Amino acid sequence: MSNHDKEVEKMVFVPKVDVIEGKNNFTLRADLPGVVSEDVDVNLTGDLLTIAAKVKEYEARGLPMLYGEFVTGDYEVSFKVSNKVDKEKIEAELKDGVLTLTMPKAAEVKPRQIKVKAA
Hints:
Largest sheet: 4 strands, mixed
Strand content: 35-45%
Strand order of the largest sheet: 1-6-5-4
Distance between the termini: 89 Å
Radius of gyration: 21 Å
Number of helices: 0
Number of strands: 8
């Protein structure tokens, strides 16, 4: 059997991720180049948030590949979500290859102003 007959396993990459804490929410940004929104799955099971994204294979459109360094692969990463997050209100948006999750803080951890009454 030649190497061409063997099925090549697709690589899986861990995307670069930033998590930012704002006054009212946490923002997670994940770099997912080459991904379209239909191919991204964001799942929350209990406290485990998983981001999985499929990348379509690059096609040379029937032309011979003379030189190639570009490696495609899927993306996957998981995080434990704190009880500081209102898990029911997490939103996701993909724009220009960057996935942004907006995770509102739970009401009990948001800072709040306490009014001082005159005595």
